[in-house]
Amino acid sequence: MRLTAEGAWDAGGVSLLTGWLPIALQLVAAALLVIAVGWRTRRWRLLGVPVAAAIGVLAAAATYAYFAVTRISGDRSAPVAFWAWTALSGFAIAVLVLGWRRTSWWRRTVSVVSVPAALLCVALALNVWTGYVPTVQSGWDQVTGKPLPGEVSLSAAMAMRARGQKPPDGGAIVRITTPDTASGFWHREELVYLPPAWFTADPSPVLPAVMMIGGQLGTPEDWFRSGGAKQVIDDFAKDHSGFAPVFVFPDASGSFANDTECVNGPRGHAADHLTKEIIPTVVSTFGTSPDRTGWGIAGWSMGGTCAITLTARDPQLFSAFLDIDGDAFPNAGESEQDTIDTLFGGNADAFRSFDPAMVMAAHGPYPPTAGWINVSDDIPTIYRAGQSHGARDPGPRPYPSDRPTIANYLCAVASSNGIDCSVVSIPSNHDWPSGGQALRHALPWLAGRLGTPDVPQIPLPGVPPTTS
Length: 468
Hints:
Elements: E1 2-3, E2 9-10, H1 20-37, H2 42-70, H3 80-98, H4 105-130, H5 136-144, H6 154-163, E3 172-176, E4 190-194, E5 209-213, H7 222-225, H8 229-238, E6 246-249, E7 264-265, E8 268-269, H9 270-286, E9 295-300, H10 302-313, E10 320-324, H11 336-344, H12 348-352, H13 356-363, E11 369-375, E12 382-384, H14 403-416, E13 419-425, H15 432-449
Parallel strand pairs: 5-6, 5-9, 9-10, 10-11, 11-13
Antiparallel strand pairs: 1-2, 3-4, 4-6, 7-8, 12-13
Helix pairs in contact: 1-4, 2-3, 3-4, 8-15, 10-13, 13-14
């Protein structure tokens, strides 16, 4: 898998994000819909088609209302193509039903086919928006449950290490079953990436570890299938004699659409699972560093919010974070009160205990900690050195607001409480490929910061030469 010039992950298949296939599918669907409508009778043209169009508009409006109520898209607006094809799908269904009588069998057949074709274009627009399924091949792999590239069983990885046998192509991915005794949080299988250097000795060299968290909708595999994480880390390890951190990809949600925002609340004690069960399991199973200086946390979208929130709450566990397009705080509502009600069962104190700015202000000066806050907007890169005095008042939170404002607000609060941070711009879309791009840019800094062998420490972007 590689990153193309357009920013899509190419897994050796036809792209579902750019190129000819998305255009061709939409043209075919549009043609089918035109044929399904047809010229027919004057009554059909003056009554049937307008009624079908109104139903299509209502379908789009209902979908918009659902998005607004559930905040399933966060604070991002869906693209025009998504709303257009949502309306056209409702239109296609109405044409099928309203125009079924008094028409030829072949037009009925086309009408039937036009409905799934339009719905496919809705899914296609949604996928282009999120970058969730980069290629036809990756989509097929997900549907069929094909193992990830480089995936081996845990027992096989242990046997390879005992023989001193490195994986044939970069690092290896293993699935682990972690306990839920501390959190009671039901979760799916979780994944760990082991760099080539891990296999060179038994016991393995002590490597740092990075916890990787994805968006609010998805699975622990998303960083690999949609974000291209294995290729990014493999390329990095290749340039550093096989050394890279061990990466763990936990299940922060428990199911595809359970938006926990990595907090403890009615949707599950996700925070306890990540901090009290994942870390001890990875340390004991893979021999990673047990010290805070050897642990970092990174995430995209919801995962970015998780990264800064958990670092703020648990500085005894993490010393560095990578926040890629995260929010100002765990966010699951139209307003702050909506979030408090949804994520915390109405408990405002619990909400404040997971608001990163409020947590940092209450904590005061942190031990040596650093963060890279990545935004997909085109803005200047800004570095802020950590101050030792501590800031007790984080100031008004930028909600709702744009991501550059959020990033600069969080960085200002962090630096006021002893955390070095940079707001870094990598202009792109807010989608999975952009998350992979940000990881590629930030990994040299993150790996060096955590003390990865054979990896030099480099300053955060924007550090003046006199302070580096």
